[in-house]
Amino acid sequence: MTLLPATTYPPSDLVDDLRDRDLVGPGVAFQILYGGRTNQVWKVLGGGGDKVLKLYRATPRNPLFRNDPELEAECLRALEPTGFVPRLRAAGAHKSGHWVFYDHAPGSPWRKNPEGVATLLRSLHELELRIQAPKGCNGSADLADHAEQILNACTSDTRALVAKLRPAGHVPATKHTCLIHADTVAGNILVAPTGMTLIDWQCPAWGDPCEDIAMFLSPAMQCLYRGSPLTQTEEALFLNAYGVPETVARFRELRPWYAWRMAAYCLWRMENGAADYARSLELEVAAL
Questions:
Q1: Which residue in 68, 185, 199, 241 could disulfide with 115, CB within 3.0 to 4.6 Å?
Q2: What is the CATH T-level fold of the domain 108-287, as seen in this structure?
Q3: Which of 184, 181, 225 is nearest to 203 (CA)?
Q4: Can you list the pairs that 112-116 forms with residues at least 24 positions away whose Cβ atoms lie under 8 Å?
Q5: pLDDT, tens digit (0-9, with 9 covering 90-100), for 63-95
Q6: Alpha carbon distance 173, 284 (integer Å)
């Protein structure tokens, strides 16, 4: 998939709709945000505190990350009491796509000190919520099936190389499932003096907490969003700070399967025009 063309201003009729709802005033300004790789996002300046407008685009189906605006709105509502998600103000549909409108979270994308991220994810995984989210992969068989589905959509010669890297062994499914974010990359974790905020809830699932751990520690995703993979010391700090030995041990067992699926995904992204995934594919293959 290619990146969406950046327009500096939202559709005028969408802005009119926001004004009719008293969500923005007549002198509001919009500043495009470039962090996302799928949807169009603007920072809304003025009007009693900055906000964010996200306009979902109909893009080719992504085999790893869904793009569900209604589920994002539901998660923001349910998680508002935690303080680690933006406050949702409104959500709706427009002829250009669905949209959500929420408070702008302070801070910058995560870069260092992984212990805070570990604490944040553990807090999420300990919540007792019942959100009707799709089931995530649970166990090595699910991960293998998912990776093979992604590889089946690939056509280059590299596909055979990645297919041969399939891990051996079997890790059973866990009964300890919970709400997971499923896209815990550095760009979706904002860090401010007041704490951390987890944004972009368009692909959550009900699944194995190891999924969020694997996504954050993924060399491919760290390279794409931070510029380099985590060091061994940083990984150890993260896993120690997560503080649930059973989950950490399970993640270590499943890690080759997560890496294999991520390698398949990086190849799929490369074949669909995302050249920046070439280095990420190399990193995941090296991890395998």
A1: 241
A2: Aminoglycoside 3'-phosphotransferase; Chain: A, domain 2 (3.90.1200)
A3: 181
A4: 114/216, 114/230, 114/234, 114/235, 114/237, 114/238, 114/241, 115/237, 115/238, 115/240, 115/241, 116/191, 116/196, 116/241
A5: 999 999 999 999 999 999 999 999 999 999 988
A6: 23
* Domain ranges across the chain: 12-103, 108-287
The Cα 165–Cα 260 span in angstroms is: 7
Model pLDDT, residue 3: 38
Look at the block and give the residue holding tokens 């589905």: 149
Please say whether the beta carbons of 222 and 229 come within 8 A: yes
Residue with tokens 């005028």: 12
pLDDT digits (tens, 9 = 90+) for 4-51: 444 578 999 999 999 999 999 988 899 998 766 678 999 999 877 899
- Report the C-alpha gap between 53 and 55 in whole angstroms: 7
List C-alpha distances in Å: 1 to 34, 37, 67, 227. Answer: 16, 9, 14, 20
For the segment 141-193, what is each residue's pLDDT rounded down to a tens digit?
A: 999 999 999 999 999 999 999 999 999 999 999 999 999 999 999 999 999 99
Element (H, E) at 149: helix 140-152
Task: Name which of 26-35, 184-193, 198-207, 251-260 the model is least confident about.
Answer: 26-35
Task: Identify the residue whose tokens are 């594919």.
Answer: 281
- What superfamily in CATH does domain 12-103 come from? Phosphorylase Kinase; domain 1 (3.30.200.20)
- Alpha helix segments (H runs only) across 54-125: 69-79, 114-125
